[in-house]
Automatic annotation (TrEMBL), chain A:
Residues 10-73 form the Metallo-beta-lactamase domain. InterPro entries: Competence_DNA_uptake, Metallo-B-lactamas, RibonucZ/Hydroxyglut_hydro. GO terms for molecular function: hydrolase activity. Signal peptide: none annotated. It comes from Sphingomonas parva. This is MBL fold metallo-hydrolase. Transmembrane segments: none annotated.
UniProtKB/TrEMBL annotation, chain B:
The keyword Hydrolase applies. GO terms for biological process: proteolysis. SUPFAM superfamilies: Galactose-binding domain-like, Subtilisin-like. CDD domains: Peptidases_S8_Kp43_protease (cd04842). This is Peptidase S8/S53 domain-containing protein. It comes from the Bacteria. Transmembrane segments: none annotated. Belongs to the peptidase S8 family. The lineage of its organism: Bacteria, Pseudomonadati, Pseudomonadota, Alphaproteobacteria, Sphingomonadales. Keywords: Hydrolase, Protease, Serine protease.
Amino acid sequence: MRLHAIRAFEGDCLLLESGGGEAKYVLVDGGPDGTFEDHLKPYLEATIPGGRLEAVIVSHVDRDHIVGVLDLFAELNRQRIDGEDPLISPAELWHNSFSDAIDDDEDTIAKGVRMVLANAGVASTIMTDVPIAFFGIAEGERLRREARLLHIPINRTFGGELICPDLLPNPALEIGGMRMTVIGPTDANLRALQEEWLEWIRRNRTAARPEQLANADKSIPNLSSIVLLVEEDGRSLLLTGDARGDHIEQGLDQAGLRPDGTFHVNVMKLQHHGSDRNATRTFFRRNTADAYVASANGKHGNPDYETLVWIVEEAHAAERAIEIVATNDAPSIQRIRQTHPEADFGYRLRLPGDDDHAVIVELT
Amino acid sequence: MRYRIKAYTLDSKTRELAREAVDEGLIEEPEITSGFVQGTCGEAGIRRLSESGLTVRALAPIPEEGTGFKSATPSGGRSGGAPGLSGASGPGAAPASAREQPGHYLMTLRGSVTRDLRERLSDAGVTLLERDEGGRYVARVAEGLGRLRDHPDVEDIQHYGVRQTLEAGRAPTQNASFATASVAAGLGEASVLEAVVHPGFDSDALAEALSADGAEVMATTRRVIRFTLGRARLEDIAAKEEIAEIQAPGVAGLLHDVVRPLVGLADQAGGHRSVPYKGEGEVVGIADSGLDQEHPDFRGRIRKVVARGRPGDPSDLHGHGTHVTGTVAGDGSASDGALAGIAPATEIVFQSLMDAQGGLGGLPLVLGDLFQEAYDEGVRIHNNSWGAFLHGRYTSMSYDVDRFVHEHPDFLPVIAAGNDASCNPGANVINQPGFVDWPSMSAPASAKNGLTVGASRSSRTDLGLAKLTYAQAWPKSFKVPGIGEEPVSGDPECLAGFSGRGPCDDMRVKPDVVAPGTDVASTRGARTPLRNFWGPYPHNPYYAVMGGTSMACPVVTGLAVLVRQYFRRERGHGNPSAALLKAAIINGTRPLSGRDAIADPGGRPSYHQGFGRVDISSTVPDPAAPTFALSFQDQDASGSPLVDTGDYVRFAFQVEAKGDIRLCLVWTDIPGRALQNALLMQLEDSSTNTWNSNGDLYAHVEMPVPDPLATIPGLLKRDPNNNVHVIRVDDAEPGEYFVSILADNLLAGPQGFALVVAGPVSDLARLG
């Protein structure tokens, strides 16, 4: 099994390749604006020419995860209409819509967020990232519309239902030789998130002035990420999306994967681009990997230097030799090299070459 | 049971009939104007009047007790005092006795506002300020109610209190539906509020008072103060005498080839156009996301681009504005003319609105500022493919549109109806195939003086979302089978499922017209990702497919440019009014027959399709090969004969051969939620036939016509709230016809109007 971490700027764009026999591919997220044209499209053309994706998985609706998939689908639609051979043929889309995952039948939360934004927006002044959280909902709907247009089934493996371990009779699935277990979002995660959204609306509905809203917590929508454990030939990979550390742990516990409160995996894709808001030092003490993948470019400070310190120091303390794989040489990566030299702390840093579209992590 | 009635006297015959009825005592308490007699009459009398050939409108039944106010005495009043003074019992209402002083009242009058009635009220210290959607008047009373208690003209009077202030702007809103949702309990309401000031008050002074109360004032315009409560209490602010209403404003968002044949421009590249105009010499204004100025389809015709959203950068990051502009004015250079817009030779003034965050930050607080900027560049037709979803509410944006046009009667804003129509379980769902719920009109589409455009379906069956059903494309909006199972495009007789439906919150009909707005191919900006569109256009990256009332609106804007060119070039009319362009376009519409277009409540106009789909080929005649004649009157307010209620003006024309005739009357009304000045149009032939305008309106709606009168043939129903009136006569016999325009009820004259008559007709000759 092989993980291709495509250089998705500040976002995630991961191509999963099964080993043994005929390789099967799964795309997890598409990165933000620019990822598709600059990296994903040429990489797919070079790696799987005219091939097939067993699944396209959108972990959640943030723009730095979904836009590249929207671009991919738009390009497939253009090729279909222009009579060209498709770049690639996705067999299925995995995606949890906001309304299915978080909202109620009345779309209460979507309407509430829209109201909050409307209130602040009428002043026609600056709101930073806040609309992104809201517009993500619309982007998710657009994604599903495009999939219907391209006749790509949505969540077929899950009977068209929400991807949530509580709803699955058997959360483990086979794609090629890869065994995929849905870890999150759990029903408990989603209920907690619904509460957080309502609280967000309550708190911010009086934030009439945009600068108040700009200071509001923008992380809530991230937390519904699809989290997957992928295993093949005794090797394992944890795909975390932007899920929060405690939610990941809760999902692993629920799956019975942390009987003694610890968990080890060969490769861990760092949640939320290595942001220190989605994890703690304790998380990395209890949940360990041989290799950590940081998909980020320094935007929003990701990967956070603190996160890297926690990982390196915890591994060093436990005398585990690890590898940190980063898609870009972000300032925090440069800094950890200086403050925690690889030789002194027993870890190895790996970056793609300047002309590479991806950095590859082998799981063999 | 007796009723207040009006009998119309627009010719010598009906005048004589009415005089006899008065002499006989059939019409009691008569008040005679040139255009009608108003008075009281019993049921049998109404039947006799109607059968004698008079056109009669029954107003309200007269309460059995006769005179005196009909409302109950509020508790706490003085003994025997203030009969009928309606209780303003909402939170913070003052005790009844406190209202025995100057202030604002809601007044129901017994008749139309004739000159005499106005003088009688004036003698009693009453100034009428505005008409509300129920036909009542907001009035300022100078000396208290003493002299109004038994006033013969006043049916009912009610203090304009806190409750009225809070309820005035309160049609169902997104906030209201939000508040009732299951998991939303206790979340409360929007925090940014707008206070609308009664006419005649200084909003700056009031803003200072709000600040002194602890509110945070964000902005102040002539009649609107935008604020947050801060430390102030809503009830205290609503209790201020100067404030007419408090509402939660909405935020504006963008609303989102085969089109031309559907609107009568049956041409492909180089083919025949049904009219020879392409917008030469005209300047069109478009306020939208941004514009790709390098697109070959606009080359050499961009007069001005204003960057309002991002200083110095009017470019189009979204794609919406470039697409809209192509539909209005693209010349198809990048497609060998195949994808030309409607007015491919017009000059373009573009106002870029999209800010760095993807919102419409370029919209000014007062829309008049946006329009003025365009007006100063020579723009007289202005496209607005944006709006806020407000369930048909008349907001400050709607008011701004109406005010600007009232002050600049030659400026026509064309406005998208909005894309928020849905059909989900609950609310008004009628179990009828294709039915889409109402009301879902956006603001400022709810304005009276703009031209509001809904979306019909295009005939496309291949590109964009054409192959999806409405439920597949927008599963959250179309959960009810029926419309949900219908394809997004393909049947041009149907409406777009999402197209904003009327009525407005005063029951006024909107949209005015519809135009194709699904799967429309138009110009694509070079910097715009394909993912922002409904789909690509085959083998040509200069174009893409999009849909929405946003795409229908520029079709009508383009047509308005051609119509203006027609009046200027062919008819020697240098400066056509907005009302005239609107009247001509509405007069040219064809009603759609799709089941969603004629769904309940049907009639013409309807809340679904307005007056129908635009069609240039029946709007203005092709001078080279005319299939009909067009006669018109474009009467501005200053010289208008309609000065007082009851005034009318009458025109004669000939129908020269048997054929269909179409008449449309439009006037630019005084700004304000409800219709302020009501006109009426009546058509007679030289024998005994009479046609009244909008006669088919509400044909299928339960109307508040008093029940015992329902069987009287020809009785006019409730006073329509519209400033657009049509009459259509199919297969009209040749001969002389007379059309009268009557000032049925004017708050303030003089009132201008535009009248367009189309068919095998002669010019209009003004009589008398």
